[in-house]
């Protein structure tokens, strides 16, 4: 049985041996996953797509140095995250702090009134509010926390893999994921209390 | 002090949610789960993950694959890894970080 990692390594070795099409196969496999990751860091879809494209180009150019010490996808994600960070820096943007943006967004749940007006079931409204609050809190997280929780919750990477991607110790990964959850949970608690009150 | 303990317990529960609790902390984590605050943290952390995974991913625009292939076709082949040369340069264990 060939594992996913071994399969990727076979394709990498084919590219290194001169088979361009093998890299197209890796692009076809990882382009959506990479977009899912990058679009959590760079919100404009067109800009996120540019970052994805640049990531693949950088990976292709650097492939001769890739030895398979880590899985191809952790290496690719690392390039993607660094490319996204560099993009945000060159755009003069910074990762928002938790004191801004989220508060503004949390208050801006414009759908709430209209959803009530059209008599949407309360449970549907509550779950929309929860989703909105979680995603707004996510967007307001510092980049390092956001990256860690996305790699864990959305990409399903282990702490060890995340530590490879983010080039930090496993203890830091554990702490970043926890801090991200704490910030999001803090935003969510009042909402859940309100929901509980309404059910009484 | 109590606040620090509670926070530490929630961090253990966070790691437990991810199946990443070290053996040495397992008992503490399970004890932390046996409290109302611990159970609430466990539920909230899982709920956050569920919401994040339910959020629809941003799609790539039509034609992305073709544009990507065209750009890659214009790139010179990366060639075989220069293992011997890199090893000689003392870089054998360092994966390239092209950023």
Automatic annotation (TrEMBL), chain A:
Pfam families: Sigma70_r2, Sigma70_r4_2. Residues 136-182 form the RNA polymerase sigma factor 70 region 4 type domain. It comes from the Bacteria. Keywords: DNA-binding, Sigma factor, Transcription, Transcription regulation. Residues 26-93 form the RNA polymerase sigma-70 region domain. One of its GO terms (biological process) is DNA-templated transcription initiation. One of its GO terms (molecular function) is DNA binding. Belongs to the sigma-70 factor family. ECF subfamily. This is RNA polymerase sigma factor. It comes from Massilia cellulosiltytica. The gene is rpoE.
